[in-house]
Amino acid sequence: MRNFLSLILFLLSISTSIHYYLPGFEGPLPFALETGYVSVGESEDVELFYYFVKSERNPQKDPLLIWLTGGPGCSSICGLLFANGPLAFKGDVYNGTLPPLELTSFSWTKVANILYLESPAGSGYSYAKTPRAAETSDTVQIHQIDQFLRRWLVDHPEFISNPFYVGGDSYSGHIVPGVVQQISLGNEKGLTPFISIQGYVLGNPITNLNLESNYKVPFAHRMGLISDELFESLEKSCGGIHINLDPSNEKCLNDLQAYDNCISEIYVEQILLPNCPVDYVLGDIPQTLRNIKTGRRRELKEFSGNDTPSLPPPSCFTYRYFLSAIWANDENVRKALGVKMELGKWNRCNIQNIPYTFDIDNAVPYHVNNSRKGFRSLIYRQDFCFGDHDMMAPYSSTEVWIRSLNYSIVDDWRPWMMSSYQVAGYTRTYANKMTFATIKALLFQPHIFGGGHTAEYNPDQCSLMFKKWIDGEPL
């Protein structure tokens, strides 16, 4: 009787829908799409929403990848419709109807089955049933994602034996390595089903908030965003590269204010792009870190499809963000996807409204533990030649924490190729099965002016890189 009741509770904890059509896409979908909810948490009071796209190559044998968007609190639509999924918004001028979708040529689902998960509760269509359940953190996310995966695999036993990987970008750099460790520990403890974890992939990861914060000012100086004099003054007044956040240090605070003024009109995710309006505004990391340390919430502005502000022109890279809010808040879209009726409006990034505790300061120890267990890893940066244009997580900060692992190099720095005549980026492989790769922009790509913060800035190169790595081929 107890086993029967457990089975009933499990069946009630997961709901799925198979989709052959999607509002905004003309004709039947040429790939298999599933959406659904899985209940997790101590009292089954967190409902995590997901999109699942089967591999277009061989879903029975191809790897299964779970993709986590950063934020924390951003929707997995960022992966599905922007970064590495099979659909994207057309670049048409918005005419007041549902934004149309089109197929992409760069989808990672050509070679892998991908679960796009909305985590934590409050992200995308995921939600909590009680105020207490809405309270979350880095470590809570990690445990709930592991719980989600094991429940999802019980409902999808045909994928239990597939090689499994965890992927993400941006703030997911704090979460992905911990999820890999948690899955591994669960396997060792005998949790079922056994997950065939093989490794993980991270793009422009935020790994250590203090480290990334410290490299913002040198980045701004190197890219010519602040003067030599201000840089030298910041180094002197704020304690060098490790910025001193002492509120009694008036000179340091004045210099930081001057620094903030200099970068206030910069689009920090890709500094060469126009600073077009966005659906949310996340402050520069030094300011964000000061807010976190003083207990202040990040200052954000939100937009949803229920609002009617002036959209930026289609030439703006952020234009698609506004289209996503219009699409995701459409009643027919939500009904088609099986979104729960009690859910409120959808925001691409819902950071402001999630009671979140940042309880992992540094994800490097997770990388160390995962390396000791032999897991593969791919860490990639989107760069332009020898300069990086992502100010959210500067290139130099990634280099520093990778060097801190002190692993020997087995394949030293070299170019990897997009074609016989085109360098796609540069790569290096370490003895701990870690591959580090950079991706540079190709000049013939429209509206792309150098590597940015996520895969959506250079999708073709990212797709080729992922295919080679996931298939075990050298870049």
Automatic annotation (TrEMBL):
<dbReference type="GO" id="GO:0016747">
    <property type="term" value="F:acyltransferase activity, transferring groups other than amino-acyl groups"/>
</dbReference>
<dbReference type="GO" id="GO:0004185">
    <property type="term" value="F:serine-type carboxypeptidase activity"/>
</dbReference>
<comment type="similarity">
    <text>Belongs to the peptidase S10 family.</text>
</comment>
<dbReference type="GO" id="GO:0019748">
    <property type="term" value="P:secondary metabolic process"/>
</dbReference>
<keyword id="KW-0325">Glycoprotein</keyword>
<dbReference type="Pfam" id="PF00450">
    <property type="entry name" value="Peptidase_S10"/>
</dbReference>
<dbReference type="InterPro" id="IPR029058">
    <property type="entry name" value="AB_hydrolase_fold"/>
</dbReference>
<keyword id="KW-1015">Disulfide bond</keyword>
<dbReference type="InterPro" id="IPR001563">
    <property type="entry name" value="Peptidase_S10"/>
</dbReference>
<feature type="signal peptide">
    <location>
        <begin position="1"/>
        <end position="20"/>
    </location>
</feature>
<protein>
    <submittedName>
        <fullName>BnaC09g47000D protein</fullName>
    </submittedName>
</protein>
<keyword id="KW-0732">Signal</keyword>
<dbReference type="GO" id="GO:0006508">
    <property type="term" value="P:proteolysis"/>
</dbReference>
<dbReference type="GO" id="GO:0016752">
    <property type="term" value="F:sinapoyltransferase activity"/>
</dbReference>
